[in-house]
Amino acid sequence: MEPLLPTTKHRRGRRTARQERALADPGPALLTVNALTDGLSDGRPVVLDIGFGTGEAVVAQARADPDTVILGVDMHTPGIGDLLASIHELDLTNVWIIDDDVRNVLEHIPTGRLTGVRTYFPDPWPKKRHHRRRLVTADFARAVAHRTRLGGFWHLATDWVEYAEHINDTVGACSEWRGGIVGKPHDRPTTKYERRGIAAGRTATDLWFERINP
Ligand SMILES: C[S@@+](CC[C@H](N)C(=O)[O-])C[C@H]1O[C@@H](n2cnc3c(N)ncnc32)[C@H](O)[C@@H]1O
Questions:
Q1: Which active-site residues does the annotation give?
Q2: Domain map of the chain by residue range?
Q3: Above 50 in pLDDT, residue 38?
Q4: Do residues 78 and 55 make contact, with C-beta atoms less than 8 angstroms apart?
């Protein structure tokens, strides 16, 4: 398999006072990869959220299912500040954050350890010459599959029809996954990013895949 080389630089951006406060004192939710290895050695179910943005979906889904840990991976510092602030304000103990490119983090997750994976509104890179920057490729789909237990899920959503078709074709062609386009599951919250797409006249497509035996 090709190495999953990072193509996206860390983006720092401007921060609000709430974000700054949370980033200055992140507490135990912000993990290093070494701490992740320790955390993953306990038996709690873990769902990976790839590119959580401001963390709205992570917060709602962590509150709805306190027995499952949500491991959020993103590298946009203001969004990490938002999610840390929500974790502090709501006293959430089942959310972990890693500030890194998910392609680096996957290497630290043991085979079959994840119960499921969520990727809501991955950066669409709509221009054809930028398609190679898209996160969801065949190699990425296989790398995610190897960390997901048999019977586990990968739920994706995008508001770019052509990216949805690409995901459907690429993940659908991967022997480790079975599934495709579905209606919006009731437990997927609507995020700021999705609301922006709706305001611009786009609609979301959800895709649901089950991890099967290759
Ligand atoms: C369009 S936003 C969507 C955010 C959120 N999931 C939502 O639905 O509102 C995409 C997010 O993915 C993150 N991202 C992009 N590439 C990534 C990568 N390789 N590893 C981790 N996060 C990534 C970006 O920083 C950004 O926060």
A1: 123
A2: 17-211
A3: yes
A4: no
